[in-house]
């Protein structure tokens, strides 16, 4: 991995700040449980990954979640939700980055966003079943859900929510990408040449 220069570090800091602000502007979607909130904070992480590489995207995801945890706290006292948000973010950003990096076209970006959405939705369903939902019930002292209850919650709530979230983020990102794609490619090319 190449070292990040000052411009990259400043850009990552700015994109992390924007991601944190976007994270605060979250909202629920009515058919899904209230604790599942949509925000567009993965967009700056995706921009960072496309311009500066995958490590930059991961850094933006990490910094925004650390900022949010220290500024707003957590209902559980430990950052279970922030860890889940970080995992969802990198599960969306990294596959999108790698697919686009292979294809380098607008169709490639669309395909990458769909792959990222599906990858995030499926892996987050597994992580919710194995780790995240049990951690919430443990730290909030709720009665543990049975396996069928957890499966129902994941299949009817978490999996479709993550698909909808990924599609909404993809839609907004494609609107930006059609306007900024050439600029982002120039920035990435300039970074690789430096």
UniProtKB/TrEMBL annotation:
Annotated TM spans: 6-25, 45-63, 83-100, 112-133, 153-177
A Pfam entry, by short name: ECF_trnsprt
Keyword Transmembrane in record: yes
Gene3D superfamilies according to UniProt: 1.10.1760.20
Localization per record: Cell membrane
Entry superkingdom: Bacteria
Membrane topology listed for this record: Multi-pass membrane protein
GO molecular function ontology, one term from the record: riboflavin transmembrane transporter activity
GO cellular component: plasma membrane
Alphabetically ordered keywords of this record: Cell membrane, Membrane, Transmembrane, Transmembrane helix, Transport
Family: Belongs to the prokaryotic riboflavin transporter (P-RFT) (TC 2.A.87) family.
Role description: Probably a riboflavin-binding protein that interacts with the energy-coupling factor (ECF) ABC-transporter complex.
Name of the protein: Riboflavin transporter
Natural source organism: Cytobacillus oceanisediminis
